[in-house]
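Researcher: Let's run the pair from yesterday's discussion. Sequence first, then tokens, for each.
Model: Starting with the first of the pair.
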Amino acid sequence: MASADTVSGKAGRDHSLSVSTIVFRSTAFGAILHGLIALAVGLAMYVVALTDQYIALSHNLARTATIALKDHSEELESIVNRVMARYHTLSDEDRRNVYTEEVRRKFYDIYAEDGYQKIKDYMDDFLNNSDLFGVYIGVYDPKTKALVYIVDPDENEDTGMYPGDWEPVEDEEIDEFLNWGLDTYHYSIDNTERWGWICTSGYPLRNAEGKIIAFVLADVTLRELTHSICTFIFYFSLSMMLLVGLWTVAEVLHLRRRIVDPINRIAAAAMGYVRDKINNVDSKDHFAGLNIRAGTELRSLVHVMADMENNISEFEDHLTTMTAEKERIQTELSLATRIQADMLPSTFPAFPDRDDFDIYAIMEPAKEVGGDFYDYFLLDSSHLGLVIADVSGKGVPAALFMMMAKLLLRNALMEGMSPSAALTEVNEAICRNNREEMFVTVWTGILDLCTGVLTAANAGHEFPIVRHPGGIFEILKDKHDFVVGGMPGIKYRQYEITLEPGSCVFLYTDGVAEATGESLELYGLERTVQALNSVQEPGPRKLCEAVFSSVNGFVQDAPQFDDITMLCVTYDKKFELKDQDMPARSITVKSTMDQLEPVTAMVTDFLDAQDCSKRIKHQMCVVVDEIFSNIVNYAYVPEVGDVHVEISCGAQPASIDVSFADSGKPFNPLQCTDPDVSLEADEREIGGLGIMMVKRLVDEMKYEYRNCQNVLTVKKFF
């Protein structure tokens, strides 16, 4: 935690560059900006007014000269016609040599006439008595797009014009003057190479019939306009700088009193609050005692800070309680993590006394506890149960659902159910009470270690990846059924894979294929298969670790969104079954007919697991039905007792052995005489047909009375 001096030092450094400087700079910038805007607007208005003044001046002078020349219109018309006639006879070469002595000589006779000189002298007097830069008579010729000079009183050899001299003009200027209108000024403002910035206004000269024969043109130089603009800018800028300075100082003083000083007082109170917190001084009057008379916002800020000061103390007490509660929850989550880990088999090698197969598994939850799970267990010495699953959701709810689903699946498989029957049974159990509508994807299988036949069922889970001896890992696109817990009444299917010694099955959850890298790209199944095929050393542990390492290298520092679970089993060699290793199932039920169904189901599942033919299964079901019915009808009547049924396999020769034990009345069915089936039904004694049918369906039948129990054993070879 920072010390009070450190906090104060930081606040001081910040203050030297904060509000005062910002206020000064903002005010000065705003004043300058407004001054520049005012300068631009005023300058524009000034230029427009001054330009209009120059246009009006040149127009009025041209108009006055036109009125004065009205008495000479006939003589002037003659001069104009002769000059224009000769101008139009000029060749292109002559026009290119304008202002030369050779071309001007063609107009000397007109220039020397007394009438021409009289008009020239008159206009010279007019020019000398005005402020014009130049006044002259000219004709706009649209054919050659030129202004042809008629009379120019300027005697300067460099600037004066002779009759027939011409200058090129733009189409806009020609249209401006030739389309004469009385309601507007006619002028042209140009920046010419010869004259610079100049404003030309004109007024038409008319003959006796009112036809325009030429224009009196008056030029006004705009040098004075430029000088006036510069003068305006200088004085305006000087005034603006003075006003900006005064305005900035006044505004800064005002804002400092109204804003900066109250903010500094609030900052000082805040530093005092921090200092007291560091020194563990319990005080709540740092802000409440401030008397801020500034704007509403600052007063509101003081009230908010005072409320905050009071609320922080309450929050600190609440935070202490929440921290303790969080630590308790974290402890419980850690305990839940250990409990979940303990529920999954994690000791490897899993079956150190077995060399016919090897198995390894990894689970990395995305949170403290996860929803993935795996399981493996020996149903008997020759059958290995495999389960991998992924519960919807994450965290504690998924973990609780996972524990329930895992126990149900294990119990169903341990009771002798096939993978499809186990999924069907567990789905019904979960759907009966699943208000949270959670579900689980499951792949489960039973590997016959003697034959290598893997019987499996897939409830919406990922495809297994299989490698056969001498081959590479490939994705097995097996049959998919609906997820467990999603809908009641689902009948799951199963399929078989024949594994040879050297085969390997890799199972995983979607957290592997859907692991996401920093670029949001998925790891994918192709990389999973490549990682498996890159492993040189055999063994499920190496395979799982290679895939896990590849996933971590792909993901790098990106967060883990899903649990990562893998289960790998290698089938190394066929298991040789001995008599003591033969599988067996047993069940104890009451001697009532409604218990016949679970007994028959146990026998049927056991026979399915042994790949018995339909004929043997049908015969053994008939045998069980007859023997169990006799026990129900005669052993305990009128009471009800226990019946223990056990079914097992014999090794050499292969057989199905079923024994029935009850504590009822002693009775040896082998001593009963078989009924004479050649007699009519009404002639035969009642009873005996069931026992006779059993004797004919089985290969051996043995009875003994031991430990006060009737024990009847039947054997069927296959």
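Model: Moving on to the second of the pair.
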Amino acid sequence: MVIVIVRDAFTLNASHFHAFAYNDYNQRVSFLESQYPGGNDQLRTQIREQVWNDYVFEKVYQPQYDALGLTVTPREIREILQGDSIMRDAQSQIMRQLMQSFKDSTGKYDKSAIGRFWASAPRAQKDQIRQGLRKERLQKKYSSLLEFSTYVTTAEAKRDYVNKNTKGDFKFLYVPYSTVADSTINVTDAELEAYMKDHADEYKSQETRTIEYYSLTIDPSPEDSAKFATDIREIAKDFAKSDKDSSFAVARSDDAQPFTFQDPTKLPKEIWKTVPTLAKGAVVGPLNQKNTYTIYKVSDVKDDSVYYANTAHILFKSDTTMKQSEQDSVRNKANEILQQVLDNPDEFASLAKTYGSDGTKDQGGELGWANLSKYVKEFKDAIIKAEKVGTITNLVKTPFGYHIVKILHPASKKLYKVATIKKTLLPGKSTVDAAFKTSDKLVNESKTLAELRANAKKNPKMIKNTADKVQPNATNLGSYQSAREIIRWAFKDETKVGDVFNQPVELSDQNVYIVAALTGATNKDELNLEANRDAIKLKVLQEKKKEMIIKKLEAAKGANLEAIAKSYGPLAQVKTLSAVAYDNSSVQGAGFNPFAVGHAFGTKNGQRSKPIGDQTGVFMFETTKMTPAGEIKDYTKQQQELVSRTKNLARFYIDQALRELADINDKRYKFY
């Protein structure tokens, strides 16, 4: 069976020809979208995927179920929803959603609640649930049939046991490919082409496009910035006077923020960097961070049951495992540094970096705001007693050692309800219009790729980017999101390499115009050297390095591996492996080299192997000891483990096999 989506129809070719109209797909999509008015691009994409998966189910899976006579009765659906829990599949996505929505007071699935919902739910909603449960139940029955047909013979179990328990000790000589510089090897295009053809299955291309694009960021003009500054200051003044903080903030903020009591550790750090204390009615800001301005207003303050404080410290580690003389030495050093801090308070951070012995030293010793109950009693008590900002004049001794403590914000039991306004400085209409004119002019004057490149160079604000091997269903162009319009154009049949998109594309939420051109294309299953040049070159280089190293090793003289390594040169390494399992695929210290491991186990005890190249380099092995797995009387346990392992993968492999046999070729990306 082949599934192909084309412009005029969706077609499924099999022993019986099936066709369903393009309009039918859109109608199903439109119907689902009507159930979720106001949905965003992400939701619309999910809906299109759901409709497509429904089609795949109907044309690929349902015939398999019909051939086996698998059905799901209305009674089964009732049992799943309201019957014995054994009927509810833990992997069912729909049941997980229902079990989240209908719970009793203990948090368990409430069958009576689902019954009340079912009695009054709209028919369309019930049909949707029924169909979803039916589909999941059929898939479960089908995969279960194949799962329970899984069988492992005693011979297979024995082989698995032997592979895991046969152990070998080896000495090996290793020459990594990286020891030969790429620059010393010449690789021709003819060699690359030949390698690609010899390994055609590995390098058949997927359908991709390479897009060169020029981005013009729409930055706010000085006039935009001046007007915004005036507006945000007026908002801050009005905010301070308002007696309805939450509604005032919601009405004027670009991004709604929580309006609940929070302890100081949850408040933004920028507030505390601006003011030492917070009182009811206090307004902080506007504070600017990357053109987003924030205004905070403390709407209410109340007491909590625990203390919070913002502190920094320099820890001199000392504990009871140290000799008393060592502890005394640490205390004396801490006192010495404490005096330096008291004499030069501004040097606290640099002294913390120099003398601190915990992870805070690189942050100038800052611990930040914390619930003091997380600290040991001695540290907590010292902070609570310190009522002023500054360094505590005495060392604080804890089980961790001696601390020089700096109070950044004194201990407090206060909780704060803060209303927040966030507004982003955006370019004004005239600024956007000017950017459009610039990018539109670039398009109109650039009918070819060469003209586009030449014209773009004249404007330093036009930033050149390349998106390499873009996939058909991609939505992002490099770092720019929601660039689907450009990607869809690139995959159209009429778009050719070298074409320039006939208009600039505005990504308004990212304040940028993009001018794009198609610079590369690969088609499904073609052998394209340029698309795979780097990967193929690495392989050809590796093959040439392997030949060079093996030839040099074969010429090296020596009675043992050490002598051969010495004859080869300092880049050859001799190492050992102990108790390596036969089914191991890596060589310790050399990485993934399954062929080399197999070669090692093929070398008889006391003998030396010929040089063998694998993934990361060339090896020579000497087997020093081989420990066979030995016989056991019963391989039932191994059989059970293999059966369980196979069953766990069965559903995945079933799905992959059906889709491969169906030869699904989804070309919706040309139109959506």
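Researcher: Give me one sentence on the second I can quote.
Model: Residues 2-147 form one domain.
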